[in-house]
């Protein structure tokens, strides 16, 4: 196998370190490795990453190296197209929601081919520095308890703490306190005081763009988890960044075909519900969806992006025998995208026609 046309990454790992990694796939402990990237060798640290995918024969990885640089290598094992994450983040960036950059790579492991991976930029301080975004805290939503609700989504009982479902990646001693206060306050009854608080503590315009992106791409798992929050330094408002969009564009997170109506047009989670309780926000969201349906979420706009990605990765995919899906399925995935886009557009247009305000 060879990764014709793709950037290559090479990992060298000692047997004992590999055995330690494989002994517990659920561990987040790093192992020392040698990394060759763009012709430069680094001492690096590597670990497994992901949820249910850790049990798959082809693992996904997080690697740190150099001056606090972090990359994510996704096997995209469940996605026959290998581009759903990449296309989704491209779409979010297109609608001005800052999102990770991606590229497909060819990975070698101790001299042996490891196949095609999607390399994803980490959401960290480097991410913000590159975009000249000043932030004072960064928080990851790591499971479905990050639903902005007072209740645990599984037990339906009050959460032990309103910080459940989150992990502070960067912040200070009051970062948890501020987010806990935010979740508590947004669960207050709708009214002038509630709306004033939302306006003061949340970038509502950006949130509605993120909501539109999640709704259009059809990420059912993207509302209660798989996002990052950061506090904008000068405004003090929370802003949101998407993460993990493999289960989109007509397939779920396990790669199964699903209906184009899987995700409701108004989305999910308690914060979304509270925002859309206000007529002014509903009107902004409706206008935003219409604009995106007319200008961005069209097959004419999306098709060239898909074809360009396919042109880059097809030779390597054809040579990659580590994948779950046959090459024939990969070849026909653009048709799945086209069907999804056309059906999704019809569904959302129909729903918007029924909105009364």
Automatic annotation (TrEMBL):
Q: Which UniProt keywords apply?
A: Capsid protein, Virion
Please state what the protein is called. Inner spore coat protein H
Gene behind this protein:
cotH
């Amino acid at each position: 196998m060879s990764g014709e046309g793709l950037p290559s990454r090479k990992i060298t790992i000692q047997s004992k370190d590999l055995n330690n990694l494989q002994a517990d796939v659920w561990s987040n402990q790093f192992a020392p490795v040698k990394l060759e990237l763009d012709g430069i060798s680094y001492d690096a640290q590597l670990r497994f990453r992901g949820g249910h995918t850790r049990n798959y024969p082809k693992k996904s990885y997080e690697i740190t190296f150099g001056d606090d640089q972090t990359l994510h290598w996704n096997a995209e094992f469940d996605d026959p197209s290998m581009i759903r994450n990449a296309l989704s983040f491209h779409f979010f960036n297109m609608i001005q929601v800052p999102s990770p950059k991606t590229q497909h790579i060819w990975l070698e492991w101790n001299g042996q081919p490891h196949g095609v991976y999607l390399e994803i930029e980490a959401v960290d301080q480097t991410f913000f520095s590159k975009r000249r975004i000043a932030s004072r805290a960064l928080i990851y939503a790591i499971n479905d308890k990050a639903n902005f609700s007072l209740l645990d989504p599984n037990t339906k009982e009050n959460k032990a703490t309103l910080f459940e479902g989150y992990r502070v990646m960067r912040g200070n001693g009051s970062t948890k306190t501020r987010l806990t206060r935010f979740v508590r306050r947004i669960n207050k009854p709708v009214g002038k005081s509630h709306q004033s608080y939302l306006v003061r503590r949340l970038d509502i315009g950006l949130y509605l763009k993120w909501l539109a992106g999640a709704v259009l791409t059809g990420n059912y798992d993207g509302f209660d988890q798989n996002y990052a929050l950061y506090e904008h330094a000068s405004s003090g408002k929370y802003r949101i960044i998407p993460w993990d969009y493999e289960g989109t564009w007509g397939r779920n997170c396990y790669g199964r075909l699903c209906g184009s109506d899987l995700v409701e047009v108004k989305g999910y989670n308690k914060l979304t519900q509270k925002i859309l309780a206000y007529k002014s926000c509903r009107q902004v969201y409706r206008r935003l969806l219409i604009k995106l349906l007319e200008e961005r979420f069209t097959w004419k706009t999306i098709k060239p992006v898909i074809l360009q990605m396919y042109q880059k990765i097809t030779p390597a995919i054809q040579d990659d025998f580590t994948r779950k899906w046959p090459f024939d399925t990969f070849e026909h995935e653009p048709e799945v995208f086209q069907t999804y886009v056309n059906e999704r557009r019809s569904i959302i247009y129909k729903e918007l026609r029924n909105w009364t305000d």
